[in-house]
C-alpha cells in the first residue's frame, strides 16, 4: 500500500513555526528572568551578610583603640601603631587582617586630649569578587575623672597670690629624691583641667604659675593678670601669660559619684570601739582589725585614737578633733574613716598616719574642714591617704600648717586650699580655689590607674 504524505498549506506551517519560536522565546525569557532574580537575591543576601559582618570587624578595631588608650597612653606608637597627622592634628593608626580576608583600620584622633576620637572602619570581601564592603563609625570617648592630672574640676578654678602647680614623680629617681618632691627635679606636668565653659573658667592672678597644660570645656576661657603664667618651666621663669600650645578648650570628663562601701548598709552590725591602754598610754579608742561604728567622734584635749590593725570606722554624725587630740595609726596598720554629717579637724589637733599605714577618709556631711595641724602623712606617699567626698559633701577646706600629702576625690565639693605646707598628690573636685601662697605638687606616680573609660558615643558615618 502506498502512503501519500499529507500536505499542509504553507501558511499553516509558518504559523506553527512562529508559535514554536514564541513559546521557546517565552520559556527562555522566563528562565533568564528567574535566573537573574535568583542571582540578584543571592547577591543581596551575600551583600547583606557582608554588610552585617562589617560591624563586628570594625568593633574589633574599636576595642583595639580602647585598649591602646587605656594601656599605652604614654607610648602611642607601641604595639604596631603608626604616627601621622590628619587635618594638622596628630593621629596614630593601625590595621589588622583576619583569615577570611576581612580587616579593620582604626585611627585615634587627638589621642592625648581629653576627648579623643576613634575612627574605626571594617572591610569585608564583597560577594562574587566585587571588591570590599566597608562601614565606618566614629566613637567620641569621654574621660573618667581620675588622678591623671594635678587638678580636675567640674566648675571654675581660681589661683591667686603666689600659687604654684608643678609635678614630680615619686616612683622615679629622676623625678624625686627618695620618693619625695625635690625642686631640682620637678617637671611641668602639673596639668589642670576643668569641664567649665564659663568665661572665664580659669582665673590666674598675682604671681600664680601653672607649670603644665591647661584645658577648659568647649568655649571656656582663661584670664591672667600680674605676672601669672601657664607653660613650661623655662616660660614661667622669663615670661608672663600663656605659652603657645599650653591652653586648650576640649575638656570632656565624666565625674562619678562616691558611694559609701556596702559594708555600711543599714543591716550591718558594727562593733563599738572601746578605750584601752597600749604601751602604757591610755587611748580613748583602740581599733583593731574590725569594722566599728560611732554616731559622733569628738576628741578634745590630748584624747587620741590608736589604730593597730586594718580598721574601718564609720561615723554617722560629726567628726570633731580639737585642741591636742589626734588619731594615731600604728606602723603596718590602716584606717578607713567615714564621716556622716561633717568633719572638722581644728586647733592643734591632727590625724597622724604612721609609716607603713594607710587611711581612707570618707566625708558624707555638707562640710569638711581640716585645719590645725591637719593630716600628717608620715609615710610621705600620697597613695597612703585618700579623702572621698560623698554626694552631700559640698564644701571642703584645708588650711592646716602641715602639708597635705594625699589624694582628694570629692566631685561635689568646692575645695578651698590655703595650707602653707602645700599639697603633694592630686585632686578631683567641683571647683578649686587657692587663696594663699599654696604650692600644689602633682605626683605623676598616681596616674597609673588613669585612662579612658566606657563613657562614649557611637555614630556611623
Structure overview:
With 461 residues, the chain is mainly beta. Helix content is 15%, strand content 41%. The protein contains two helices and 37 strands. It has helices at 10-71, 233-238; strands spanning 82-86, 89-97, 103-109, 117-125, 132-144, 151-153, 157-159, 164-168, 192-194, 202-204, 209-211, 214-215, 222-224, 229-231, 241-242, 247-248, 253-254, 274-278, 281-287, 291-294, 297-299, 304-307, 310-315, 318-321, 326-329, 334-339, 342-345, 350-353, 358-363, 367-370, 374-377, 385-389, 395-398, 404-417, 423-434, 439-443, 452-460. The strands form three sheets. The chain has a 24-stranded parallel beta sheet that branches. Strands 1, 2, 3, 4, 5, 17 and 37 form a seven-stranded mixed beta sheet that branches. A hairpin with a 2-residue loop joins strand 18 (274-278) and strand 19. It is elongated, with a radius of gyration of 35 Å. The model is unreliable at 449-454 (pLDDT under 50).
- Report the radius of gyration as a whole number of Å: 35 Å
Give the class from helix and strand content and strand pairing.
mainly beta
The proportion of strand residues reads 35-45%
Q: Unreliable stretches, pLDDT < 50, 5 or more residues?
A: 449-454
- Estimated helix fraction: 10-25%
Q: N-to-C terminal Cα separation, in Å?
A: 88 Å
How many individual β-strands? 37
Largest sheet: 24 strands, parallel
